């Protein structure tokens, strides 16, 4: 008999309770489980990062006059991604995790086909929005399935390992996108996205059993969904850490939107070397996620994430000061080191924020994942668009984004924890 695992809350270090599984097929082991979940997250990351080197080709092919308009290729994806997360969680609480994910991945495949056939910028934006609407299922179900099986520090560990793969993908994604440009057109990048989605569908169908606990399965009810949303937004820990996560992710989205202009074209003019610079910073983030997965069980989510957010704000201040000191164009090595340090701290923080936001909401994991995911995605996309559209040929707007958004996130965390940082405690889960 296979088992669904859960752990104690924030101070738990690995004790488990067993629930009988609801399917005779053996579950994947821990490594394969993390691999399956990470592959879902990697699909989201690839849908953003391997398209970045194609901005120039898309601009030339589709006759786009304003280079900053290319950022809408990311914004359209994130818009569909953010809005549809509100749907998949409640649906998964009714019909289960597996069928919900299959619906979402099917929508993603439709968006990929539309993008492959796109011959106009508006058409491409619509295709990207449809892709995002499908990918939203992967985002929601990733967190939901992990929460079905784990809680507390063990959940933070799994999310860190998953995030590590999610972050490692950008090390290779721009280079892969560049390779497709060498051998074909930018449309081939979307062919690869379609292929990976089909692999995910087959792998998940064959290996992942249904993880929704029978006692948590809910008949469809608008009132139940409303009550679940109310629980999410009125639980101080959940809404507080979700808000802080959205603010920090806004800085990341600002970086993604302007990274091609900063590294490849305007500020440092690296040209084909852009994927290498992008990948080195992603490598630092991946190492930080791995480190977090090893330390969080011993030190706790709050100690790790509170240290991370305080460091993030401090390094953000240094980043902004450097931008002003060098008229918006600090030396590449210096800028890269400071940016990498900030992304290192980002990766020590955000996975734990995510786990702490979900921790009290195990009984409504699907709805909670939808609400938190949609909220953080829409907030980060809007904030990231503001930072990205402010790009003026210097790194000053990005410095303001990292420092300003980080400082706001720290203030929110202080409110959430009633001005007591670094103190582990036992949240009272909603059951």
From TrEMBL:
Residues 33-427 form the Major facilitator superfamily (MFS) profile domain. It is a multi-pass membrane protein. It comes from the Bacteria. Keywords: Membrane, Transmembrane, Transmembrane helix, Transport. Residues 1-21 are annotated as: Disordered. The chain crosses the membrane at residues 29-48, 68-88, 100-119, 125-146, 158-180, 186-204, 239-257, 269-292, 304-326, 332-350, 362-387, 399-416. Residues 1-19 have a biased composition (Low complexity). This is DHA1 family bicyclomycin/chloramphenicol resistance-like MFS transporter.
């Amino acid at each position: 008999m296979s088992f669904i695992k859960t752990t104690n809350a924030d101070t738990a270090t690995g004790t488990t309770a067993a629930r009988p599984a609801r399917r005779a097929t053996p579950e994947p082991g821990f490594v394969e489980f993390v691999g399956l979940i990470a592959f879902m997250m990697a699909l989201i990351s690839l849908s953003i990062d391997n398209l970045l080197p194609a901005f120039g080709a898309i601009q030339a092919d589709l006759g786009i006059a304003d280079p900053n308009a290319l950022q809408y290729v990311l914004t359209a994806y994130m818009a569909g991604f953010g809005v549809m997360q509100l749907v998949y969680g409640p649906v998964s609480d009714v019909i289960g995790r597996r069928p919900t994910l299959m619906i979402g991945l099917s929508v993603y495949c439709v968006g990929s086909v539309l993008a492959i056939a796109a011959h106009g910028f508006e058409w491409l934006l619509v295709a990207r929005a449809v892709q995002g609407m499908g990918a939203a299922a992967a985002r929601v179900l990733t967190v939901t399935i992990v929460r079905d099986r784990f809680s507390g520090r063990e959940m933070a560990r799994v999310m860190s390992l998953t995030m590590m793969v999610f972050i490692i993908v950008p090390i290779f994604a721009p280079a892969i996108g560049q390779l497709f440009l060498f051998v074909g057109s930018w449309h081939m990048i979307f062919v690869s996205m379609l292929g990976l989605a089909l692999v995910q569908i087959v792998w998940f169908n064959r290996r992942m059993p249904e993880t929704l606990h029978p006692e948590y399965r809910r008949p469809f009810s608008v009132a139940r969904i409303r009550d679940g949303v109310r629980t999410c937004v009125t639980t101080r820990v959940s809404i507080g850490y979700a808000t802080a996560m959205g603010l920090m992710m806004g800085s990341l989205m600002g970086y993604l939107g302007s990274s091609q202009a900063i590294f490849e074209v305007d500020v440092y003019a690296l040209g084909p070397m852009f994927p290498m610079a992008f990948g080195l910073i992603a490598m630092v983030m991946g190492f930080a996620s791995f480190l977090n997965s090893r330390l969080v069980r011993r030190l706790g989510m709050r100690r790790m994430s509170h240290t991370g957010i305080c460091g993030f704000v401090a390094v953000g201040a240094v980043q902004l000061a450097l931008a002003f000191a060098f008229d918006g164009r600090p030396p590449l090595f210096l800028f890269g080191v400071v940016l990498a340090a900030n992304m290192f701290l980002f990766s020590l923080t955000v996975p734990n924020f995510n786990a702490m936001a979900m921790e009290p909401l195990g009984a409504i994991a699907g709805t909670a994942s939808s609400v938190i995911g949609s909220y953080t995605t829409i907030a980060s996309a809007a904030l990231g668009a503001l930072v990205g559209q402010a790009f003026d040929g210097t790194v000053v707007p990005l410095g303001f984004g990292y420092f300003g958004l980080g400082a706001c996130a720290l203030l929110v965390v202080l409110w959430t924890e009633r001005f007591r940082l670094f103190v582990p405690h036992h949240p009272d889960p909603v059951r």
